């Protein structure tokens, strides 16, 4: 007789959270189903309606509560979980000995910038061992443009005695493809950093569930 498939909670304990599908993770969060709809079926229906976990996490209260089986309590819990994740990433950045993994910086920028409806330009100021000194959202723009001043970025880096910086901004449209203005800005910041011996590590553009790294793009072109 074939073994019955593991329920999500049992699977998590046996194989770890990373082994779970999106629907299984959501089923654990929802805990129970509703009449005529077991919890796994409910979770799959929720994901089908919102398109993804990201779609669910960014839904407003009205859209969330329209779906049968979801209500204000689940919305509050889910938003609290989302905020806990953002704070975990922030604390991870602060506590890590050095930001040697670009994935960590990308995940942090995504959690901070991805859902903004206008452009936000953010900087991580690092010491000479790539440890975080300060993080700062420096410039805010309209829905498609932020006025960024490289001189102000360098002044802030000198103020914090930073040896290196990583910068990022979001594209509210969701498309993380860099524009000509983005490329020009990247060159200007890099040149300004060179003048004062500050390492310019990367400029990351955050889209909807995606990102663009100028450093990764440069390395790929060199291969």
From TrEMBL:
InterPro entries: MPN (IPR037518), RadC_JAB (IPR025657), RuvA_2-like (IPR010994), UPF0758 (IPR001405), UPF0758_CS (IPR020891), UPF0758_N (IPR046778). Residues 98-220 form the MPN domain. It holds the Pfam family UPF0758_N. Keywords: Hydrolase, Metal-binding, Metalloprotease, Protease, Zinc. GO terms for biological process: proteolysis. Transmembrane segments: none annotated. One of its GO terms (molecular function) is metallopeptidase activity. The keyword Isomerase does not apply. NCBIfam families: PRK00024.1, radc. Belongs to the UPF0758 family. This is MPN domain-containing protein. It comes from Muribacter muris. The lineage of its organism: Bacteria, Pseudomonadati, Pseudomonadota, Gammaproteobacteria, Pasteurellales.
């Amino acid at each position: 007789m074939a073994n019955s498939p593991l329920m999500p909670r049992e699977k998590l304990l046996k194989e770890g959270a990373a082994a779970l599908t999106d629907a299984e993770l959501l089923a654990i969060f929802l805990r129970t189903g509703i009449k005529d709809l077991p919890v796994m079926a409910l979770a799959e229906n929720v994901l089908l309606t919102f398109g993804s976990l990201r779609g669910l996490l960014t839904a407003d209260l009205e859209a969330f509560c329209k779906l049968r089986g979801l209500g204000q309590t689940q919305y509050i819990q889910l938003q609290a979980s989302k905020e806990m994740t953002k704070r975990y990433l922030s604390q991870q950045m602060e506590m890590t000995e050095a930001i040697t993994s670009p994935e960590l910086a990308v995940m942090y920028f995504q959690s901070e910038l991805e859902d903004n409806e206008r452009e936000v330009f953010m900087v991580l100021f690092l010491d000479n061992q790539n440890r975080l000194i300060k993080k700062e959202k420096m410039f805010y723009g309209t829905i498609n443009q932020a006025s960024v001043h490289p001189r102000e970025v360098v002044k802030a880096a000198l103020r914090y005695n930073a040896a290196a910086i990583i910068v990022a901004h979001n594209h509210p449209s969701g498309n993380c493809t860099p524009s000509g203005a983005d490329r020009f800005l990247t060159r200007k910041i890099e040149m300004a950093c060179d003048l004062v011996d500050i390492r310019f590590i990367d400029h990351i553009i955050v889209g909807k569930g995606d990102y663009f790294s100028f450093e990764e793009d440069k390395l790929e072109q060199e291969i």
